[in-house]
Amino acid sequence: MSDQISIAPAGRRLKLQREFGELLYKAGLWEEAVDQFLRVQEAAPSNIETMMALAQIFSKLGRTDGLVHLENQVMRICCDPEDFRLELELSSRLSKFRAEAEAVLTDIPLERRIENYAIWHLESVTAVSQHSAIYHLISKDLKRGTPNPRGRGRSVWSKVWHTTLLAEVGANAEGPLLWVERDYTPISTSQEWERGHCDLLVKVYKDGQATSWLSRQPLGTRIWLSQPLRTLGVPSLVPQSELNETGFRPASYLLLLAGTGIVVAEQVLHHTETGKCFGASPALTAPIRLIQSCRSDDVLMTSELLGWCNEAVQWYSVLLLFSL
Q1: Are 24 and 36 within 8 A, CB to CB?
Q2: Full-prediction pTM beyond 0.90?
Q3: How many CB atoms lie under 10 A from the CB of residue 240?
Q4: What are the tens digits of pLDDT across the range 298-324?
Q5: Domains in the chain, start-ordered, CATH in brackets?
Q6: Cα(116)–Cα(319) distance, rounded to whole angstroms?
Q7: Nearest Cα to 125, choosing from 202, 224, 207, 190?
Q8: pLDDT tens string 179-201
């Protein structure tokens, strides 16, 4: 995006720089965002929108000096008595930002934040095939959220959910940021996520930007995972009067999965087991048939599949289809 800014006409250049600054801010790259907004302000020193964007970032960085400079600029811009109300409003907002900046300075230094993401650490790795492994992650970051937000009158429905991993690969063709995003469905339960544990089954591709990066990381590496996102609402599989006026009750369920898509089976089957499902009793009670297609050298979660078939009260059947 820097190249686009440099060759853009003067009028459009400021707009692109402002958009780039906003993108960097949302990504947690605050110092880089400041640099972009300062360039915009240099070209348009009286632009209030740019000043407030800078003030917000300065408050995150604890830059009280930058906020004092902005307060002085506001006083110069609003020297006309008719601008008194605007000056009062801007000064009030800047005072709040300065209070936040002072709080940052007195607090324990914090790691940069990325909106809607939490910090996890790689605890261990378990190889499960020639190409795939389970990555065990732990977190004490309270920003990690929960797959099942509850309280305040929320109705919690059973769901299949996923998280987005940020792979810090450096400059890449997917965008201006230094990482790529990849979605993964955890094979661990929602309760384990809430306790700060997450297991991801990942197939490593030699030419895969994210998976090859992940496979090189030593234990203890910091990894960004997004707050849980809903993939599929299981209520469509659960007969409930408020969701199903006809009272239809399925006689069985059929799951068609391939490769690492087997992770979806794990999450669906969590809703058949007391202690893993959300709520006092399992949401799915009808028999489940699973057809899985995979390469013969990359068979995944066989022991888990057999365990479900042998131990569960509910009836399961599994058919594996192999390809070379």
Answers
A1: yes
A2: no
A3: 10
A4: 777 777 777 766 655 455 666 666 665
A5: 2-106 (1.25.40.10), 117-323 (2.40.30.10)
A6: 39
A7: 202
A8: 899 999 999 888 899 899 999 99
